[in-house]
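pipeline stage [seq->struct] | target=Biotin transporter | organism=Acidimangrovimonas pyrenivorans | residues=184
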Amino acid sequence: MDTRDIVFVALFAAIMAALAVFPPITLPVIAVPITAQSLGVMLAGGVLGAKRGGLALLLFLGLVAIGLPLLAGGRGGFGVFLGPTGGYLIGWFVAAWAIGLMTEMFWNRLNYLNAFFSCFVGGIVLLYGIGIPWSAFVAKIPLTTAFMGSMPFVPGDIVKCLIAAMVMVAVKRSYPIIEPRQEA
């Protein structure tokens, strides 16, 4: 990793923190807030790639774990990882890495459709696949209840996928940061 990579990782950790400024919307049924930070996860992977995007989220989550109030609503500290949103927080790293990996694989033919696909698979399917079972376990509720409780978030996350896809394609055209994966 060179200095440029370190700067990008730190920059996206800062972007994640800045996205916490948008006030969270908490639905009365479940304790998981709707935040703008999941957009940052998609952008980290889609703009930086798997390695740098994943590292940006690890840095951000490390800062949250030591107590900095960088999550929406001013939350922070190791305890947030043990609550009902903990699986989603851990999933942020996995999602950023996966979105980055898919973006690298699609790089030579990256367009709005496969950028959206990368964000949808990593930022919704994979993230919910980690977050929902965690929420069910911590809240001691059936998996189906946790699943149904998460469904109101999907339309907003689809909009975030669309926004992230537009940004990813625009960055590729104007200032490409990602290097394409070599095919075997």
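stage status: PASS
auto-comment: The first strand starts at residue 25 and ends at 26. Residues 30 and 178 are 37 Å apart (CA to CA).
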